[in-house]
Design a protein that fits this description.
Blueprint lengths: L1 H9 L3 H52 L6 E2 L4 E2 H4 L7 H6 L12 H6 L17 E3 L2 E4 L4 E6 L40 E5 L3 E7 L5 E4 L19 E3 L14 H6 L8 E6 L4 E5 L4 H7 L14
Parallel strand pairs: 5-9
Antiparallel strand pairs: 1-2, 3-4, 5-6, 6-10, 7-8, 10-11
Length: 304
């Protein structure tokens, strides 16, 4: 009898079991945000490393060609991301490209290149599909990094000035060949490349009456980059950070804005090669100044 009572005392009652489960649930709920924050910190570090690699590739390109690559080449429709492939150890892919030929011909090397997954052009935090049939190119790979074409122009369609034009005020634009010596504002405060989200679900009518989506790509394009789709590869700091979800903005502004899934801002590579996260709380005039190479804005105090 005593042995039986001893066994009963050692067993858990239903209430005790429920209390233990509740405590475990609370502990898990407390730990989950920390785990998610840790994972996001890792992804953000990987994204920053991608930008560091891209910035280094840009400077290696500059060392070889005495200028940064063009934002895009017209009429070839070649994007800056294709031009720096050799500097990113993608010699074979670069050598396969057929410059001057269309990018959407079935089975062509150019089409294959547009569908080649290159992690260096993809932010680890993005939820964009890895491959998507788009603009006549099957299984195309979206990109997450845009060259900075301007700090003052906020449209790519309609009346001039447009981001797809030549002689923009940034570092990368239509047939550009910008040199470090051309950056009178200082390379440490002039933006080279930054993050931008793909939001294929966000659509709108541009200033020319065309239906557009928030989409960004790499290697090459089948679109008219001069008049309507420079945002495939280029962005502008004339639009505030993470404004892509602002329903009051035009589709042009949403496509050209720099944005990220890092919540607090966007990560950026500057003209001197250094990389950092810029808070979305940055003063809009300062953010605009990052995009211009000869705006005459003082660099002191930008990062206070």
């Amino acid at each position: 009898m005593l042995r039986s009572l001893s066994r009963l005392r050692r067993a858990f009652s239903l209430i005790e079991s429920l209390v233990v489960v509740a405590i475990l649930g609370v502990l898990v709920s407390l730990m989950l945000p920390a785990v998610q924050a840790s994972r996001e910190a890792t992804r953000r570090a990987q994204c920053l490393n991608h930008l560091r690699q891209i910035g280094l590739a840009m400077h290696q390109y500059h060392a070889t060609h005495d200028a940064f690559p063009a934002g895009f080449i017209w009429p070839d429709r070649t994007l800056w991301t294709a031009l720096v492939l050799p500097q990113l150890d993608q010699h074979a892919l670069y050598d396969s490209l057929q410059f001057g030929l269309p990018w959407d011909v079935d089975g062509s090397a150019n089409e294959t290149a547009c569908g080649t997954m290159l992690p260096v052009f993809r932010c680890p935090s993005t939820d964009a599909p890895q491959y998507i049939d788009f603009e006549g190119i099957p299984a195309r790979v979206p990109g997450n990094y845009l060259g900075c074409a301007s700090g003052v122009v906020d449209r790519e369609t309609g009346s001039a000035p447009r981001v797809g034009q030549r002689d923009m005020d940034g570092l990368l634009f239509h047939n550009s060949a910008t040199r470090i010596a051309d950056v009178l504002d200082g390379t440490s405060t002039t933006m080279l490349v930054g993050e931008s989200l793909n939001h294929f679900d966000i659509q709108g009518i541009d200033f020319d009456g065309n239906q557009q989506r928030v989409d960004h790509w790499y290697i090459g394009s089948s679109d008219d980059l001069v008049r309507m789709n420079a945002s495939e590869a280029l962005g502008s700091t004339a639009i505030r950070i993470n404004a892509v979800l602002d329903v009051t903005l035009s589709i042009d502004q949403k496509e050209l804005c720099f944005s990220s899934d890092h919540l607090v801002g966007v990560q950026v590579a500057f003209g001197d090669g250094h990389v950092r996260l810029v808070s979305e709380a940055v003063d809009e005039q300062v953010w605009s100044a990052f995009g211009t190479r000869t705006g005459g804005e003082p660099g002191v105090g930008f990062f206070r």
